Fold each of these.
Amino acid sequence: MFLLFVFASISIVFSFLCSVWEAVLLSITPAYTEVKLKEGGFLGNKLKEFKENIDRPLSAILTLNTVAHTVGAMGVGAQAASIWKDSIWGWDIDLFGYYSFFLGMEVIVAVIMTMAILYISEIFPKTIGANYWRSLAPFTVRSLNIVIKFLYPLVWFSQQITKFLKNDKSKSVLSRADFTAMTDIAEKGGELKQNESKIIRNLLGFNKILAKDVMTPRTVVVAADETMTIREFYEKNKNLRFSRVPLFQDSKDHITGYFLKDKLLASLIEKKDEDQLSSIKRELIVVNDKYPIPDLFNQFMEKREHIALVVGDFGGMAGIASLEDVIETLLGLEIVDEYDGIEDMQILARQKWEKRAKELGLIKKNDNEKKD
């Protein structure tokens, strides 16, 4: 009887440890690993080693777990057969009078052992490991390091078998969808504020946004003829709220550059008011309306510019995109200064188009507009 309990205890204890190790190892996040790695020491270096070569610790865990289950089952079975070999202990089971059998102690011991392994060495320890992995991580790393050294030949053999099934290391284990899900979880858990999680989600979707999605449409862009004099433009636009104004030659479809409002005011002070606007013209970044916003942002940073001309497929002006537009997209907010009368220029452009379309009869007027 003593040996039966010894074999059962050894099997369950080692299986319990293996289940805890496995749950903890698979629950440790890349962020936690990086933090411990920056702190230095044994734990960080080993965690990085385990995460980069995950099949090594897993092979050690599964090898020890299999040995524990096999040896434990054989030992318990052999002891049960020896103890109750000639025993009449058990129950006669009668199933509705059609089938009957004798349930001996060997079968009872096997059922108890199975249930013990299922709950005590599988379900309970894996739940503990998944919930308390931070606290158990140091113990797991140190104990697994010993197990790997002790079972090195078997671990090495397992690695040779599984190395052909490993994923391409160049691929990230985390996708954009994973980061979005983690952001939602962090917001619900209180680790991130709502505005912080909003910015992260906007950043993750940044690569899908094009210049046409953020630009100020052509119909509401304020532009000036480059042949106009500085004084003439100023007299007509004394309350101009834009700091950068595109310049065109003949029509808006032929944008040649832009000028800074500050430069225009400086020219007036310097008595250069009769010069043409072309004299203070600056080069303008030109991009297609399908140009990705991340690339546009990089151009703004590299060239230290704030606006870009957005053109359509046939080269005509589609609108103007600014650094402010890009940042608004990232933050998910409209940046409105004290001089802005309209928050969204795209909405204004739509309203103007609808008004013009109604006047031309392209779309129907509503009842209120008919009365007016």
Amino acid sequence: MIIKNAEYATSYGLQSQLPRGTKKEIVMSGRSNVGKSSLINKVCNRKNLARTSAQPGKTVTVNFYNVNDFHMVDLPGYGFAKVGDKDRKRWGKLIDGYFESDRDLRLVVQLLDCRHEPSKDDYTMLDYLTVREIPFVIALTKADKLNKTESEKVVARFEEYCSNFNYYKIVLTSSDKGTGIEELKDIFEEVLADYDDETEDICEEETEE
């Protein structure tokens, strides 16, 4: 996939504000400080498209970006220790509101820090996506922090961690070195593709026979 244009569109902080989807959507999800903003910027080849908050976990908004002909959606980070119960509840309502609203959701990219076993909140999100049958890939972030031996073993380790969840693929990534970025973009291109025209052609051929 070639990213021809990418720009910030809008943000929503309350469930009631979320509109119906108007484009195909790819969603970025993960705990605070896992590297969502950096991955979005790297995928879109923009330095400051998505900005990192000075107070991780305090920015509770769903951010929309216009990328080519689809929306890239950045969900608010979860799991930051200093966030109070009130903010956690608002986060939960906002996430439920997003996934329960009418939209053309093609894929969730669930980010996990490759250096650590998934947290309790990570496992909760993986279960949420699996139970709701939402298609998702797992992007292991911060691969540049690993040495060669660790890099060779980390995907197998996460396959074991995530064996109970219905993910599509695990991709090892680094926003600094570009590891896994092209692989993610290839997956995006695949899930964004529409096959309606091809299906119609096949149906017409069968009818003619």
